[in-house]
Specification:
The chain has 2 domains: 79 residues, RimP-like superfamily, N-terminal (GMP Synthetase, Chain A, domain 3); 59 residues, Roll (SH3 type barrels). A 5-stranded antiparallel beta sheet has the order 7-6-5-4-8. It contains 3 helices and 8 strands, in the order αββαβαβββββ.
Length: 154
């Protein structure tokens, strides 16, 4: 397990009871470097969406717990937020909740001259993600997909 994965796992374990106590669920945790700064991002969710107050309450409690346990020796910026409307679908649980919804896929390299596709998420397994674009059903290897996110429909 990489250092990044270990930090994310430890943070998720610390965050789970905090989220539950605040009536939200943990959507994802990520530890990333952007420029010269490291960010520890916790995404929380609940039916109907999270409020700023939810984010603030979870952020304060998580910050206290991270200071107490100190699992990350590096300096980092803690952010707690909603995954947003166009949320990234990284994990199987995210994909499962998006079955039947419109998604956007971006590929690492073009397929049929395109790198971006959108359609209704039909199904997925360990190797592939299948979407329906109009009448066409397309299957993409998960290893070829850079990102899958819920489509924004305004």
């Amino acid at each position: 397990m990489s250092r990044r994965e270990e930090y994310e796992k430890q943070t998720q374990e610390l965050l789970a009871p905090i989220a539950e106590a605040n009536g939200v669920s943990v959507y994802d945790v990520e530890y990333v470097k952007e420029g010269s700064d490291y960010y520890l991002r916790a995404y929380i969710d609940k039916p109907g969406g999270v409020s700023i107050q939810d984010c603030e309450n979870v952020s304060r409690a998580l910050s206290e717990e991270l200071d107490r346990v100190d699992p990350i020796p590096d300096s980092y910026i803690l952010e707690v937020s909603s995954p947003g409307l166009g949320r990234i679908l990284k994990k199987d649980k995210h994909l499962m909740s998006a079955i039947g919804q419109e998604v956007e896929l971006k590929l690492f390299k073009p397929a049929d001259g395109r790198r971006e596709f959108s359609g209704v998420l039909e199904r997925f397994d360990a190797e592939n993600i299948v979407i329906r674009e109009g009448e066409a059903v397309r299957s993409f290897s998960r290893s070829d997909i850079a990102v899958v996110r819920l489509a924004l429909d305004f």
